[in-house]
């Protein structure tokens, strides 16, 4: 079915799936990138993305010099001797791949009016996000948060299908995960009070906001599992958009059985069509499987051939949008700190809902 025209149902449109937008335009004159932080995500996503895009990396800094040296040797990079040395680089974009609790401190040491991409989440909680937002305003930073799922080929194509009217008005969104996540790859989460929503489902909350805007409220429960000592690895949430829009998240990172019934998907239904997204990266992470996207307008499902995957291609998109916005080539900074604060507010609402009691079930008379 690849390459076949997708009938648009009541919209009357016809679109070749391969023509759906799957990448963000590159900056015409890319600026070099200084990376602060040398964790696994830099090796697995940031550096592969920048090399694929042809972006120059001016150097890297990490407080763990041994880790920085190892990563630099692998990718043939310069290692800065201190944060101040890295911050003194001129004409660059700063890429903060730091733990959320370190963001504010690093940002405060960057030059005024710097251009910076901040690893998600935007702090450990809403108070830290608010402090980061205030700092960015006070220091006139051009700052975005790396909510990169929006920029993955599958989600850009889905957004384009919506823009073209293939799905009609979006009325139902469901995120479903039932898989085994290798949490040992993220040792910094041990002992953290907020885990699953704060570092994982935040992707989906941000994505839902991109499609539906800000919900009025949320009902959420997040919890751990007997197989792990992490605070939370499972989440259920209902987002309230009012009217006839339904949005749910059902997240289980502890399905440690075989692959047969594992799942990582997002279903988006409109009043004229639907899209089904496979988050292949999450299945057997970090090796993953190919991502997938299928669209229907009621007759049959048509697979959209994808030009890349969440990793590393989405990371090209966030950096491209930031650089293009800073250069005046994009009118909107899609994941600006101003916008990202609302994702953090939604995360905060989830945790507040989790702490609140459920509606009691009436006892028998």
For the termini, the CA-CA separation is: 59 Å
> Roughly how much helix do the residues carry, as a percent range?
25-40%
CATH class assignment of the largest domain: Alpha Beta
Overall shape: it is globular
Largest sheet: 8 strands, mixed
Secondary structure category: alpha/beta
Give the count of structural domains: 2
DSSP, total strands = 15
Gyration radius, in Å: 21 Å
- The helix/strand series, from N terminus to C terminus, equals EEEHEHHEHEHEHEHEEEEEEEHH
Q: Give the DSSP E fraction (strand runs of 2 or more residues).
A: 15-25%
Mean pLDDT: 95
Say which CATH homologous superfamily of the largest domain is assigned: Dihydrodipicolinate Reductase, domain 2
- Tell me the CATH topology of the largest domain: Dihydrodipicolinate Reductase, domain 2
Physical arrangement of strands within the biggest beta sheet = 9-10-11-8-12-13-14-15
Indicate the CATH architecture of the largest domain.
Answer: 2-Layer Sandwich
Structure, explained:
The chain has 365 residues and is an alpha/beta fold. The protein has 9 helices and 15 strands. The chain has 2 domains: 6-18 and 150-309, Dihydrodipicolinate Reductase, domain 2, CATH 3.30.360.10; 33-146, Rossmann fold (3-Layer(aba) Sandwich). The chain has helices at residues 40-53, 65-75, 83-87, 103-107, 126-138, 153-163, 196-212, 310-326, 337-355, and strands spanning 6-7, 14-15, 33-36, 57-61, 93-96, 115-118, 142-145, 170-178, 217-223, 234-240, 246-252, 263-270, 274-278, 292-296, 302-303. The strands form 3 sheets. It has an 8-stranded mixed beta sheet with strand order 9-10-11-8-12-13-14-15. A 5-stranded parallel beta sheet has the order 4-3-5-6-7. The termini are far apart.
């Amino acid at each position: 079915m690849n390459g076949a025209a997708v009938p648009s149902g009541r919209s009357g449109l016809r679109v070749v799936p391969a023509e759906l937008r799957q990448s963000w335009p590159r900056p015409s004159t890319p600026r070099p990138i200084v990376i602060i932080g040398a964790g696994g995500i830099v090796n697995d996503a940031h550096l592969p993305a920048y090399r694929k895009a042809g972006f120059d990396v001016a150097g890297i800094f990490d407080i763990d010099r041994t880790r920085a040296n190892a990563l630099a040797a692998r990718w043939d990079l310069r290692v800065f001797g201190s944060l101040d040395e890295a911050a003194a680089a001129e004409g660059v974009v700063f890429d903060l791949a730091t733990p959320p609790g370190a963001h504010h401190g690093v940002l405060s040491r960057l030059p005024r009016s710097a251009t910076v991409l901040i690893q998600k989440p935007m702090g450990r909680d809403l108070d830290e996000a608010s402090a980061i937002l205030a700092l960015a305003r006070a220091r006139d930073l051009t700052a975005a948060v790396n909510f990169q799922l929006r920029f993955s080929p599958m989600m850009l194509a889905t957004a384009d299908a919506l823009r073209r009217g293939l799905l009609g008005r979006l009325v139902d969104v469901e995120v479903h995960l039932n898989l085994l996540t290798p949490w040992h790859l993220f040792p910094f989460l041990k002992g953290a009070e907020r885990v699953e929503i704060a570092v994982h489902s935040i992707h989906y909350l941000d994505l839902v906001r991109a499609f539906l805007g800000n919900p009025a409220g949320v009902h959420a429960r997040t919890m751990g599992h007997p197989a792990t000592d992490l605070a939370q690895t499972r989440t259920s949430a209902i987002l309230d958009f009012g009217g006839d829009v339904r949005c749910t998240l059902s997240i289980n990172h502890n399905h440690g059985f075989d692959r047969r019934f594992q799942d990582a998907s997002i279903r988006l239904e409109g009043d004229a069509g639907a899209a089904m997204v496979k988050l292949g990266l999450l299945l057997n992470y970090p090796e993953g499987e190919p991502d997938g996207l299928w669209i229907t307008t009621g007759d049959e499902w048509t697979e959209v051939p994808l030009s890349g995957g969440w990793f590393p291609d989405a990371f090209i998109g966030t950096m491209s949008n930031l650089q293009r916005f800073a250069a005046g080539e994009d009118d909107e900074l899609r994941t600006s700190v101003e916008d990202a604060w609302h994702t953090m507010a939604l995360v905060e609402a989830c945790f507040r809902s989790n702490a609140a009691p459920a509606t009691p079930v009436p006892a028998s008379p």
